[in-house]
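User: Quick one: structure for sequence A, then sequence B.

Assistant: Sequence A:
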Amino acid sequence: MKRVLLTLAAASAVLVSLPAAANAAPWQSINQRQANLDRRIDQGVRKGDLTRSEAQRLRSEYRDLVQLERKYRHSGGGLSTWERQDLDRRFDRLSHRIYAERNDRQHRDRRY
C-alpha cells in the first residue's frame, strides 16, 4: 500500500511539472529579442496602451540597447559571455518595463 501511494505521488509530481516545463520561454537570439521588444512597443502604441511619453522613453531605452550591442560586437569581434549576459539582463529589464507601462491603466488620449 505504501509503495502504491509513493508511486502515485511521484507520478502526479511529474505530471504537474510537465505544463510548467512546456511553458518555459525558449532561448532567443539577440536579434529575436530586439524584434520582439520593438514589436511590443509598436503594439502598445497602436492599441493606445502607451502614452506618447511612455513610448518615447521605451524607444529611447531600446535604441540605447541596440547601440550597446553594436558597441559590444565591434569591440571584440563578437559577443563575449559576459556581454551576452549583460544584454540579456538589460533586455529583461526593458521587457518588464514595457509590460508595466502597457498595464498601468494610463492610456493615450484617443481622438478619432
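Sequence B:
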Amino acid sequence: MVLKDILAISGEPGLFRFIAQGKNAIIVEHLETKKRSSAYGSAKVSSLEDIAIFTETEDIPLAKVFDLIYEKENGGVAVDVKADGNKLKSWFEGILPDYSKERVYVSDIKKVALWYNILHKLDLLVKEEPEKAENTEEEVNVVKAAKAGKAVKADSEADSAPVKKKKKPSAGSKKE
C-alpha cells in the first residue's frame, strides 16, 4: 500500500494528509472531513509509512500488513474495532500469525483495523507500483557519465541560449 503523506496525530481522531510545512507547524487535512488544521511541534505526529508491527522474527511495515488484510478480507472491510479483545487478537493472528503477542497490544490491533477501514472507505488502499525493470536510455547515459566523472546537461539546458551577465560599474567610474 502507498502510505506516503498519510499521518496519525496522537490525541486526534482519524487520519490526516500532509499538505505543507509551516514555520512552527505542519499543515494537515483530515481525510474524512477535509478540514485543514495545524499540527504544532508539541503534537506527536507519525507517518503511517514509518510504522511497523512487531513479529517474532522481524518488524513488518504497516503497508505490508494492510496488503495482507486486503488479501484476507478479499478487498472488503476489516473486523469491527469495537469487537471483543479476544476476537480482535484471533482476527489479527489470522493476518499475521507470528506477531509478537507481548509487544502488540489490543489497542494497537484496533488502530490498525480502524486505519485500514478509514483508508478502505476513502479508496486510498492503492497497491505500490513495482520498480521499473528497465532503465531508459537517457538514465543509462547519465549513470555512465556519472561513473566517468563527467557532467551531464539535461536536454532543456543544452538547447537554451547562454545568458549574458550585466557588467557592474567599476568603483572608479561615475555615471553622469
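Residues 6-121 form a domain with the Arc Repressor Mutant, subunit A fold (CATH 1.10.10.1650). Helices lie at 62-72, 85-95, 106-121, 137-148, 155-159.

User: Thanks, that's what I needed.
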